[in-house]
Every structure is written in structure tokens, then in C-alpha cells.
Amino acid sequence: MTSDKTVIPTREGRLSRNRAADAPAARATVAPHYEIKESDDALGLEVFLPGVKRDNLNLSVEGRELLLTAGRSWNRPAEWTAVWVETGDFDYRLHLMLPEGLEQEKIHAELKNGVLRLTLPKSAGAQKRKIKIE
Amino acid sequence: MRLIERNHPNTGLTHGDPFFGTAWPRISDWARSFDRLFDLPFDDDFFGYRGDRASMVRPAADLYEDGEHYYVRMDLPGMDKDAINVEIERGILTVGGARKGFGDDGEAQRTFEVRRSVRLPEAIAEDQVKAAYEDGVLTVTLPKREEDRARKVMIEEGK
Hints:
The complex is a heterodimer of chains A (134) and B (159).
Chain A lengths: L7 E2 L2 H11 L6 E2 L3 E5 L3 E7 L8 E6 L2 E7 L9 E5 L5 E7 L10 E5 L2 E7 L13
Parallel strand pairs in A: 2-8
Antiparallel strand pairs in A: 1-8, 3-4, 4-10, 5-6, 6-8, 9-10
Chain B lengths: L1 E5 L19 E2 L1 H4 L2 H4 L10 E2 L3 E4 L3 E5 L3 E7 L8 E6 L2 E9 L10 E9 L10 E5 L2 E7 L16
Parallel strand pairs in B: 4-9
Antiparallel strand pairs in B: 3-4, 5-6, 6-11, 7-8, 8-9, 10-11
């Protein structure tokens, strides 16, 4: 598990965004920014989800597919007038193909300050082993 | 841990890719005439890198107002509350801060810096500014100065 193809992002994020552009009335979907890191015994996935609360986050792993959906919502007080808006209410969606050899029962997830951090431990067989040269 | 993939140019502190769909700023007609003022030329370093392991990001920001306040909301996911600096100088609000990358260790440790300046439309009561950080979003509340607030004039009934 050393190649940069270990985790293959699907193209869904972009397709969803195109759909959203075609139908402006619908709530938009965007792929959140993420980073994937690897150590000898685990993969680390960091997903940036500003404005997302724990209750609005769904995460599932089925087979090798990881699917994350999260809703970003904020109730603007009625008396606030927008002068300039760059953020927005939309749905985050991330669909990743995980490599084989992960201990799925031991996946650890933590959402803090709008960042989801996932630790995906490798199973013993998939871990990199140092070979002693005699 | 070493980085093996990411889907953004540097750190992901902004959520939007301006070339795809939803990240276009929605600008009110009034604000259109104002956009040059909002973004200051000196923080136009969205893709700027500072060395190998530190990079600068310009977070997405909103500006709202009501009768008594301006409000700036900014996406700053993953920051430590105490590591966020909010400053106002000569009518310009500047938010800055830094965070460490997740799972980085030793030589791989990266520092991400974020900085965004917003020119405020009018003078505010600088000593009464408040900021709150929740779910990776910073909200700065900037009270308008008493003398600048729009006043509702009571019309008395003639006798």
C-alpha cells in the first residue's frame, strides 16, 4: 500500500455539482476538501466540513466504499441583511473507494471544529513490515 | 503519516472551488459596486505557498448587517479557538491564524496559515467587537457607532 492509487476518489462530487448547477432551485451538493495520509499501520482521512454539526453528518463504510454526507445549515437571523456572501447552505458528499486490508471495525472518527478526522487501521497482514537483513 | 492524496490546492480551509458550481459568491446588486473594496489587494495569495510545509489560505467570508451591527462569518475549520487572531485597524478587519496538519509528525509536520482581510463599510465601535467560534465557523459581531446608525424618526401627530 504505497502507491498514490491506494484510495480512489469517485467522480460523483463533480457530477453532483453539475446537477446542482442545472437545477438552481435544488440544494447544492459539493465535494468537501479532504486529505489522505498514510503511516505504516493506518490511513488517516481528514475532511473539511465547516458549519457541520455532528447531528448533520452521516458516515458509512460498506465493503470498500466510504460514503460521507453532511448538511451545512445555518439559520440567518431574519433581521440580518446579506452584503456579501461566499459561504452557503449546501450538502457535502464524499465517496471514496478504500483499499483492501483495513480493519473496518476499528475505524475511529472524530468531528471537531468543522473537521472530521478518520483513522483507518490496517489489518496485520496489510501492514508494512521491516525485514531484518541478517 | 505522509500525505498521499488531497483534492485541493493546499489545505482545504476554503470549501469552494470558484470554477465549479456553488462556490460563486452571491452578491447583492448594491454590493457589486462594492466588491473592489471588500477584498484588499495584499491578501490575494490564495495559492501562495510559504516554504515547503507552510501555506497560506484565504478563507471564505460573508458580510451581513442589521440596524446596529455588521457581522462577518468566516470558514475556519480545524482551528484552535486561541490560535485565531481578530484585529481591526483603520476600518479593516483582519482574521489570521495557523493550525497543524492532522497526523503529521516529525519532519512531515506542516503548518497552515490562514489570513483574510475585510474592509468594513463604515466605522464601527472597535472596543465592542465580539467574536465566537463554532463548528469551524468564526462569527465576528461589529457594532456600528451610535452616531452612524440609521435612526427611525417618529412622526408626531398634528394637533
